[in-house]
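Treating backbone geometry as a discrete language has practical consequences that deserve illustration. Part of our work consisted of pairing the sequence of a single chain with a tokenised description of its backbone. We regard such an encoding as a compact summary of how the chain folds. The amino acid sequence and the backbone structure tokens for this protein are reproduced below.
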Amino acid sequence: MSQAVVALLAALVGAGAAVLGQLIGPVVQSRRAHRHWLRDKRTEVYEDFMADAASASGHLHSLMGSDRSVRNDETYKKLMRDLRAGASRIDLYAMAELREAASDVWVNYQLAYYAYYHESPEQQSGEMRQVFVEDVERVRQLIRKELGVD
């Protein structure tokens, strides 16, 4: 083969690689940008949910030992809406195990609140609060796992 043919083949291969790089580059960059956006979005959703869970935990803690005849259902309703909305947002972005755990958090907040006002023994409401706290911790661990923090 002559040097001219080899040079021509080399030029064609080089030009083809350049064109291919121009076609593939934006696709790779777009996928990378989407992964970063998704991680940021998940982080935002998870942080919001954990803040709501901390508020709900504080609310349950404040109930312990308080006068059961004085109820603040508005605080409870707001926290329930926030937790339910947060669990719904998690439902959009998270793995199945985390979605289930987030759902357990708002359900067990509701049960702990109900137990405090309707299940007379203090022990029952304390046990339900503990279940809620354990669920929140489980969500925290799953979030850390999903975000690759651990």
Notes: The chain has four helices and no strands.
